[in-house]
Amino acid sequence: MSKRAVYEAKTEELLIPIVEEKGFEFVDVEYVKEGSNYYLRAYIDKPGGITINDLESVSRILSEKLDEVDFIPDAYILEVSSPGLGRPMKKDRDFERNLEKVVEVHLFKAIDGEKQFIGILKSYDKDTFTIDDGEGNETVFERKLTALVREYIEF
Questions:
Q1: Scanning 42, 103, 125, 144, which has the fewest C-beta atoms within 10 Å of its C-beta?
Q2: CA triple 14-47-117, angle to 5 deg
Q3: What pTM does this model have?
Q4: Which candidate, 53, 41, 37, 54, places its Cα nearest to that of 8?
């Protein structure tokens, strides 16, 4: 397991009880390096949307817990935020939440000359998901071959 994966898993263990106690939803954790800085980002949500005060209260508690266990030796910036409208679908609960909704799919490698698809999410399992193009044509995608899957937002 990579250093990044270990830090994310340990942070998730600390974060889930905090968000559950407050009635929020845990979305994701990521540990990334951008430029010369490391960032530990926690994404949370709740029905109706998360507020700045919600984010601040979780950030304060999580920061204290991270200081107590101190498993990340690098200097990092902690950010607790909303996942935003265009959040990627990564976990099963993301796919579950978006069943029967229109999603956009971006691939690393083109299929029949296409790298982007839009359709209704019909089903998923741990390795694949299926979308319908609205005309009854279903396409099955391997999760590991997708660069991005998210709810489609039409502007």
A1: 144
A2: 95
A3: 0.73
A4: 41
